[in-house]
Amino acid sequence: MEPQSPPPPASPFNPVPRPVAPQGGGGCSKPLVVGCIVVILVGAIAVLGGLYYVGTHAVALLQWSLRQMETNLLAQLPKDVTPQEKADLQQAFADVRTAIQDGKVPPERLQPLQFKIIEITRKGSSVTRQDVVEFTHSLQEVVGKPAGAPTPSPTPIGTPVPSPTV
Asked: 128: domain range?
């Protein structure tokens, strides 16, 4: 057993001697260390469980994210998008979800689509009609449909339409 040093002398301004710090035993208490280890283990198990879930349900999560993207994009469509363009966009989203569900779309073909999604999402409410048309074509290309020429703008009312000659 180590001999304890005598307490420090009393201060002239404070006549009570200072208490001596206990020898050894510094650091965290045992229950605190056990509690921290338990919290770390529970967190690690939660992360591993989340990774397992994402790995086994990737298709469902991707379809859910595409539905969310479709809902958000349809909510902020510009006023000049025609009903046909809106229907084409909805059909293109449905085709991509079906192709993903059936396993017909390899992950490499989704990467350009992800960049387009990020680009359109960043634009927010300033999405243009041309953005919608291009995005629809990108969706169609992912599933292997030929992207046709961009949909022409509707003819303004009162403009004469040339009649076909026979």
From this structure: 58-142
